[in-house]
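PROTEIN DATA CARD
Card holder: Protein moxZ
Chain length: 163
Origin: Paracoccus alkanivorans
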Amino acid sequence: MKPVVSRSFAIIRGIALMSSLILTGCYEDEEETLPRASEAAPAERPAPGETKWLEVTSNEEPASFVARLSGADTGQIDQRLVRAEAHYRESRRMIANRIVQLWDEIGQREGDAIDILELMDQLIATDATSERSIGSVIQNYRILRIEGADHQAAIATAIRRTP
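Structure generated from the sequence above:
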C-alpha cells in the first residue's frame, strides 16, 4: 500500500512542476520585449475591419494611439490612462488596447460609438486602487451584455464583480 502513496505523491509533484514550468512561459515582461526606439516601426492607422492593436514594438504612446483611433484629445486620454493604471494591473499599452477594443465593439454592436473618454471614465469610476485585470472586467461586461444587461448596468456590475 505504501508504494501507491509514494507513486501518487511523485505524480502530483511532477504535475505541479510541469504546471509551474508551463505558466512561467506565459509571463511577458514588457521591458524585456521592447526593442530600442530606432528598431521599432511606427504605428499606422489600421484599415477598416483590421484589428486595432498597439504592438509592444510600437513607438507610439498609448494616449496617442487611442487619440488617433478615436479623435479624442491626447491629454485627456493620458490623464485617464494614468488613473486607469492605478486601478488595473496591466500596463498603459494593454489598458489602451483593451479600451479601444471595447469601444470599437460597442460602436459595431450599437451602430453609434460611445465617447471613448466617457467609456474610460466608466471603467475607472471607483476610488479604490486594485490589482484587478481590465481584461477580466471587460470580459465580464461582454457576458453581461450578451445576457441582456444595458451598457450602464453591465459596466457597474462587471467592475463590482471582478476580483
